Amino acid sequence: MLPRRTFLLSLPFVIQSLRSVDTLPAQLTDAEFWQMVTAFSEPGGSFQYENFVSNEISYQEIMPDLVRIARQGAVYVGVAPEQNFTYIAALQPKMAFIIDIRRQNLLELLMYKTLFEMSPDRVEFASRLFSRRPLGSRPATVEAIFRGIESTAANAQLFRETLQAVKDRLEKQHGFSLTTEDKRGIDKVFTVFYQGGPRMDYGFQSPTPNRSVPNYTRLMSTSDPRGKQWSYLANDENYTRIRQMQQRNLIVPLVGDFTGPRTLKAVGQYVKQRGAMISAFYVSNVEDYIRSGWNAYVSNVASMPVDDSSLFIRFQPSAYTSLQPIRNFLKSNNVRELR
């Protein structure tokens, strides 16, 4: 395994101390949330990996710099599944948009949404997510929570009950219009977590531990270089922040291509019209897969309201995570008018 490294690229900016007044909502109704999901999304596409869980073990290494530089209380944009919750918990945005070309990722995030809503604490959440009932007292540390989950077998009855509750909550309580294919997609995703358990990794589940591919337990219990744990399950405060945003419909999953004509521009326009800014855009390594659509991608990024503190969060397969000011990226791509 390559040494873990963190890079902070060219940050010569002074963060603005004045904050403009924005009109971002404190809560979205179910109808507003679903209308946004529908109107902002593009047709689903494909990707060579299913990405049920992150494989980015270095994702917390940039956290001290991220929270020092990026705005809190702004708008977060990201891609893929659960690692977004950790970045959101740290940056405390007013709203978050998670965009992925795969509709399956949207369905996974809707599954997560209902599990947060149904689970008052971290133990209940982890229990429902992996369909396992831990025994004994409710532990305080994330390591202890996952030891408890790992020590018990998958529970078929809990799996069936939770899966039905997820779909009932989405359709009957929230009133979201799920297609038959959507419901099959949720069945598939939840079954992967049931079968894989807390030791599932990017390859869904590994029969033998592989230190180069982090499993869910390790992703939740890792720390930054100073030993601080930032994961969304690391403490009650982080979990509660995400849960409250989910209850208020403020984490919005979208289907979209970073080079597509609608989704990123719709998010940018929405944020701009409300006088707000993008604090961070977690792109993982999606840029590595952009070929002929690079100019469209640059145009989409340029449509988003940013300032000197707005950051890209990137991951490279050589196992490091980095930050770059979005304005530096735009300048390097010859975008002259920065919004």
Q: What is the global morphology?
A: globular
The number of helices is 13
Which structural class best describes the helix and strand composition? alpha/beta
Strand percentage lies at 5-15%
* Largest sheet properties: 7 strands, mixed
- Number of DSSP strand runs: 7
Global mean pLDDT: 91
Q: Cα distance, first to last residue?
A: 41 Å
Bin the helical content.
40-55%
- CA radius of gyration is 19 Å
Description:
- This protein is α/β, with parallel strands linked by helices and about 350 residues long.
- The protein has one domain (about 5-10, about 25-330).
- Helix content is about 40%, strand content about 10%.
- The protein contains 13 helices and seven strands.
- It has helices spanning about 30-40, 65-70, 85-90, 105-120, 120-130, 140-150, 155-175, 180-195, 215-220, 235-245, 265-275, 295-300, 325-330; strands at about 5-10, 75-80, 95-100, 250-255, 280-285, 310-315, 320-325.
- A seven-stranded mixed β-sheet has the order 1-7-6-5-2-3-4, with helices on both faces.
- Helix 3 links the parallel strand 2 (about 75-80) and strand 3.
- The longest helix is centred in the middle third of the chain and has 18 residues, at about 155-175.
- The chain is globular.
Labels describing this entry:
single chain; 339 residues; alpha/beta; 42% helix
Summarize the structure.
The protein is of the alpha/beta class. 42% of the residues lie in helices and 11% in strands.
What's the structural blueprint in terms of helices and strands?
Layout: E1 5-8, H1 30-40, H2 63-69, E2 75-78, H3 83-91, E3 95-100, H4 103-118, H5 122-130, H6 142-150, H7 156-173, H8 180-196, H9 216-221, H10 236-247, E4 251-255, H11 263-273, E5 278-284, H12 294-302, E6 311-316, E7 320-325, H13 326-332
